[in-house]
Amino acid sequence: MTIGGEAVGRAYSAVDVLEFLRRAGLGTDVVTLDDREVIEWQGGDHDVWS
């Protein structure tokens, strides 16, 4: 997962994504997992994990 072009780790679930966002100061009051203008999903989406 990258935030602002910086690699922050690998997310294996939506919980991981939320934790990386929280660490970056982007809580769920700022961004939601289905906001495609903010999050670019590759190989799935917030409901699909390979």
Break the fold down into its secondary structure elements and pairings:
Blueprint: E1 2-3, E2 6-7, H1 14-23
Description:
A two-stranded antiparallel ribbon has the order 1-2. The model has no long low-confidence stretch (mean pLDDT 87). Helix content is 20%, strand content 8%. It is of the alpha+beta class. It is built from one helix and two strands, in the order ββα.
Can you give me a brief rundown of this structure?
By secondary structure, this protein is α+β, with helices and mostly antiparallel strands. The protein has one helix and two strands, in the order ββα. The model has no long low-confidence stretch (mean pLDDT 87).
List the main descriptive attributes of the protein structure presented here.
8% strand; globular; alpha+beta; 1 helix; 50 residues
**What is the average per-residue confidence, as pLDDT, rounded to a whole number?**
87
- Uncertain regions: pLDDT < 50 for 5+ in a row? none
Distance between the first and last residues' Cα:
14 Å
Strand portion, in percent?
5-15%
